[in-house]
Amino acid sequence: MVRIFIVLSALAMVLSAVLLGPNRNPGPTAGDFLPVEQAFVLDSEHHGDELRIRIHVAPGHYLYRHSITAAGQEVSLGEWHLPEGEPYQDEYFGQSQVYRERLELQLPLHAAGPGAQVELRYQGCTTGLCYPPQTVLLPIAYSSR
């Protein structure tokens, strides 16, 4: 009985090596990817009538320009623009623009009230994974002057 077990174990190891050998890539697993908060590190600064937002993009990752939106809650946003991105041919979205390494936004603020915040939405990807769309609430310091 022990001999049969040893033979079957050896056979299973040989088959595993053949099926999952160096020429076969089972593909990336969830542990191969950065968590979204490490892939896209966001920080912001509120100075007077402006909110500056910086998103640091990890190497090998990118943000889609078309996915970035900002909306004020208890604050009005002035006109703001996204910088041009790098052209990118996307398998799903076609011709797109993306940001790599870093993105900086400057949002003009008007009439901020108590509880004011800016809702920022974005989505990014890396080879083999698109992260779900993200929503971040950025508080705005209220001053009654």
TrEMBL record:
Gene3D superfamilies: Thiol:disulfide interchange protein DsbD, N-terminal domain
Pfam families (alphabetical): DsbD_N
GO biological process assignments: cell redox homeostasis
GO molecular function, one term: protein-disulfide reductase activity
Domain Thiol:disulfide interchange protein DsbD N-terminal: 32-137
InterPro entries: DsbDN (IPR028250), DsbDN_sf (IPR036929)
Residue stretches spanning the membrane: none
Name this protein carries in UniProt: Cytochrome C biogenesis protein
